[in-house]
Amino acid sequence: xxxxxxxxxxxxxxxxxxxxxxxxxxxxxxxxxxxxxxxxxxxxxxxxxxxxxxxxxxxxxxxxxxxxxxxxxxxxxxxxxxxxxxxxxxxxxxxxxxxxxxxxxxxxxxxxxxxxxxxxxx
Length: 122
Prior knowledge:
- It is globular, with a radius of gyration of 13 Å.
- The protein has strands spanning 3-7, 10-13, 18-25, 33-39, 46-51, 58-60, 68-73, 78-83, 92-99, 111-112, 116-121.
- A hairpin with a 6-residue loop joins strand 4 and strand 5 (46-51).
- Helices cover 0% and strands 50% of the residues.
- Strands 2, 4, 5, 6, 9, 10 and 11 form a 7-stranded mixed sheet that branches. Strands 1-3-8-7 form a 4-stranded antiparallel sheet, with no helix packed on it.
- It is mainly β.
């Protein structure tokens, strides 16, 4: 079992930065692939970024490439999402996820956090 708790969301102006954190419980966190999804009002959840359990392989949505960076610290059981050059269209609830044999489809991820709101003003 893995429990995930996000933090770091908030209100930021366009062009600004935020770093989201996800604290995980469970001794096996390091053996899971991890990632971030987001959901804007009236829209489906969409994939943002992921990282495999070993750490070196990352995957980004086109909307996140070049602006967002995913990282993990297995010793601290923590996942991060650094978001730079934020745009109003990045406004959404951001979810931390963990799982095995995962993909960009939200249904492939087993564990979800409760989400943290990110609002980017123009």
